Amino acid sequence: DQQVKQNSPSLSVQEGRISILNCDYTNSMFDYFLWYKKYPAEGPTFLISISSIKDKNEDGRFTVFLNKSAKHLSLHIVPSQPGDSAVYFCAANTYSGAGSYQLTFGKGTKLSVIP
Amino acid sequence: DTGVSQNPRHKITKRGQNVTFRCDPISEHNRLYWYRQTLGQGPEFLTYFQNEAQLEKSRLLSDRFSAERPKGSFSTLEIQRTEQGDSAMYLCASSPRGDSRETQYFGPGTRLLVL
């Protein structure tokens, strides 16, 4: 049972245009969401996060939107650059007991930004 | 470099052998996590340490797997009697003291191939 879903395995966008990556979740206990970017043969790099008490968070070219009622979040990259080409993972943080927190990841979306 | 480091970066072993991986977290972080990522999947939680205490283990962590963090600093993950299904990227992450709205920072990972 996948609690965090990224239904688009891949996305291609022209340089300078907007990239929109989507993520859906099923567990209403999730209260903090993160986006990570991953290049081949490297570990995930933290990009941006959002708390469940907010519906939007911006950091430069990156904006994350959260729709709690729809259990949906999206990452917008404007303008997209070739260096943004990577796999993007959506993750949700939850308290699992005994002082333990863990991230639940989606399967990722591979973004290709075409020059 | 003050990020999370992992060694070795790559490991090739024969089925049945034991392997050990090391993770050095960001120095002021007291929380340390191990994840496993297989092809086409997002990282999956394996285990969590707060200081030297191992507070949670995933059902993915069979009895062939053991993790330690003896002095609350670096951690090791050992796999005994490796199987081909253990081939994956093993990721370590760390986070500072905080609450559920904390960011985990990942190392570059150790890629294991079991022949």
Structural overview:
- The complex is a heterodimer of chains A (about 120) and B (about 120).
- Chain A is mainly beta and about 120 residues long.
- Chain A has strands at about 5, 10-15, 20-25, 30-40, 45-50, 55-60, 60-65, 70-75, 85-95, 100-105, 110-115.
- The mean pLDDT of chain A is about 95.
- Chain B has about 120 residues and is mainly beta.
- Chain B contains no helices and 11 strands.
- The interface of A and B includes residues 36, 46, 94, 98 and 107 of A.
In oligomeric terms, what are we looking at? heterodimer
Strand content of chain A: over 45%
| Number of DSSP strand runs of chain B | 11
- How large, in whole angstroms, is the Cα Rg of chain B? 13 Å
Share of β-strand residues of chain B: over 45%
Low-confidence stretches of chain A: none
Which chains make the largest contact?
A-B, 31 and 29 residues
Give a concise summary.
Chain A is mainly beta. Chain A has strands at residues 4-5, 10-14, 19-25, 32-38, 45-51, 56-59, 62-67, 72-77, 86-97, 100-105, 109-114. Chain B is mainly β.
Any descriptors?
heterodimer, A: 115 residues, mainly beta, 6-stranded mixed sheet, 5-stranded antiparallel sheet, globular, B: 115 residues, 7-stranded mixed sheet, 4-stranded antiparallel sheet, 11 strands, 0% helix, 49% strand
List strands and helices in order, with pairings.
The complex is a heterodimer of chains A (115) and B (115).
Chain A: E1 4-5, E2 10-14, E3 19-25, E4 32-38, E5 45-51, E6 56-59, E7 62-67, E8 72-77, E9 86-97, E10 100-105, E11 109-114
Chain B: E1 5-7, E2 10-13, E3 19-24, E4 31-37, E5 44-50, E6 53-57, E7 65-68, E8 75-79, E9 88-95, E10 105-106, E11 110-114
Parallel strand pairs in B: 2-11
Antiparallel strand pairs in B: 1-3, 3-8, 4-5, 4-9, 5-6, 7-8, 9-10, 9-11
